[in-house]
């Protein structure tokens, strides 16, 4: 179908921080030294981040500490090409900051038992973008409208996904070489998603007739789930080895709302007759289910001379497609006799799932002096997005289905009662076969569900990491005697 573009305009809205992604497990790293090593610390680290990485290492901790790790300044950018055919892209970028972990250790009076706690924000994803195309396109057969039709199309997406983990860890030192542990992870997940598409086409007839389509989808929910992580650490001489096993999640409770509204005016759907109608429903207080996969991780850390090297590997199992919420079937189209076979549960469905992924990390530290260390790390961050979620109707909120590669580097300054880490974070990812749904494609317009196109999506991040650990009680966890400095 030929087209002639007269004018095209793109409006891009800057967003709140795009911190974290919505289809990766390793986007964020926690703690100070740990973040600069890119999480390659499964063999153990001397702070309470082990509650998250490997609770087996808690038994070897000697001091009580509280730590906060923050990305003080961070610029992330997402671009999805061809949100409205070839005419406009989705772009989202923002400068922001957010604390990622706070926690500490509790004195037990027994040097072989350690208890820790942490509050962790592994996901804080915020994407908001608007694209608009305004021009003349040949969209209607010349028998009805000769020449190009004046057209205005606008699409928007808003996705705010966040998770907060409250973790309670328990570690037990078996002997000088072995320690085991268990972390109880209670995760709260929330989603607020909106997608809209409005298209207006003016025919070249005597009435300048209007053809229009409007789509609006909404989904919001929260969910609480529980995960147990078991860990074991073996330390001898200059070697530290770690193993963790994380259980599939246990769904606890949650609820949410889904809504969909489709309106068409003077549109040809089945035959040559133009019709108008709406398809709309909203269902609230629906029970929610959200799942985390089984995973197993293995890591090794080795110290020699002034250097320290760490490697971490983690496998995440897949999750079969499932319904996050289960809307009830019911009449969706008005007037009802227009399409009685279409039911609400199909258009309001919100599904999730995950493919199996494997991630790897490597970190290096060089100790310049007792008070100064230089650190660097690299890790993969494969997307677990299952492409089968693209099939069928329903609400599809996932944005970031691309693989990401992270680089980190910086320094740690150690003092008697505290340590300060400063570093740079660089991340990049792309998908050259990004399936963009719900847009406007002049070559193949669909005013009911929106057009689906294969385009390119890119992600980039530049951040300045500021991490701080404060030893608020410079005592051994097993008693009142001060620990050695």
TrEMBL record:
UniProt subcellular location: Cell outer membrane
InterPro entries documented for this protein: OMPP1/FadL/TodX
Signal peptide: 1-20
Membrane topology according to the record: Multi-pass membrane protein
Keywords: Cell outer membrane, Membrane, Signal, Transmembrane, Transmembrane beta strand
Similarity remark: Belongs to the OmpP1/FadL family.
UniProt-recorded name of the protein: Long-chain fatty acid transport protein
């Amino acid at each position: 179908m030929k087209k002639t573009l007269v004018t095209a305009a793109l409006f891009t809205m800057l967003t709140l921080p795009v911190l974290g992604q919505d289809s990766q497990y390793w986007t964020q790293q926690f703690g100070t030294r740990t973040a600069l090593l890119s999480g390659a610390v499964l063999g153990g680290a001397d702070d309470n981040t082990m509650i998250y990485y490997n609770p087996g290492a808690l038994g070897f901790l000697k001091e009580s500490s509280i730590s906060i790790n923050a990305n003080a300044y961070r610029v992330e950018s997402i671009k999805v090409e061809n949100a409205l055919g070839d005419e406009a892209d989705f772009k989202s970028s923002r400068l922001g900051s957010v604390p990622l972990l706070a926690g500490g250790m509790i004195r037990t009076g027994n040097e072989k038992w350690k208890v820790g706690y942490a509050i962790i924000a592994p996901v804080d994803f915020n994407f908001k973008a608007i694209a608009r195309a305004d021009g003349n396109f040949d969209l209607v057969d010349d028998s009805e409208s000769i020449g190009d039709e004046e057209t205005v199309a606008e699409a928007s997406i808003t996705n705010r996904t966040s998770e907060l983990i409250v973790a309670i860890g328990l570690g037990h030192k078996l002997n000088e070489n072995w320690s085991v542990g268990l972390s109880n992870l209670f995760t709260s997940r929330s989603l607020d998603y909106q997608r809209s598409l409005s298209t207006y086409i003016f025919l070249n007839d005597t009435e300048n007739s209007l053809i229009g389509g409007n789509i609006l989808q909404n989904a919001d929910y929260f969910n609480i789930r529980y995960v147990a992580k078991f860990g074991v650490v073996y330390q001898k001489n200059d070697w530290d080895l770690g193993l963790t096993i994380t259980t599939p999640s246990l769904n606890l409770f949650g609820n949410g709302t889904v809504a969909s509204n489709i309106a068409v005016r003077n549109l040809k759907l089945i035959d040559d007759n133009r019709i108008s109608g709406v398809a709309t429903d909203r269902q609230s207080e629906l029970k929610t289910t959200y799942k985390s996969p089984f995973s197993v991780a293995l890591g090794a850390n080795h110290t020699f001379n002034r250097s320290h090297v760490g490697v971490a590997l983690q496998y995440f199992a897949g999750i079969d497609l499932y319904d996050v919420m289960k809307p009830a079937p019911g009449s969706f189209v008005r007037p009802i006799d227009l399409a009685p076979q279409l039911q609400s549960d199909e258009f309001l469905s919100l599904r999730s799932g995950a493919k199996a992924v494997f991630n790897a990390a490597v970190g290096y530290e060089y100790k310049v002096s007792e008070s100064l260390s230089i650190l660097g790390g690299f890790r993969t961050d494969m997307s677990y997005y299952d492409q089968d979620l693209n099939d069928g109707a329903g609400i599809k909120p996932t944005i970031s289905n691309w693989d990401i590669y992270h680089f980190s580097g910086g320094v740690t300054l150690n003092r008697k009662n505290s340590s300060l880490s400063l570093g740079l974070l660089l991340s990049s990812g792309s998908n050259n076969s990004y399936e963009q749904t719900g847009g406007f494609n002049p070559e193949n317009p669909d005013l009911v569900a929106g057009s689906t196109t294969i385009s390119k999506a890119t992600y980039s991040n530049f951040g300045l990491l500021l991490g701080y650990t404060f030893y608020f009680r410079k005592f051994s966890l097993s008693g009142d005697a001060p620990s050695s400095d």
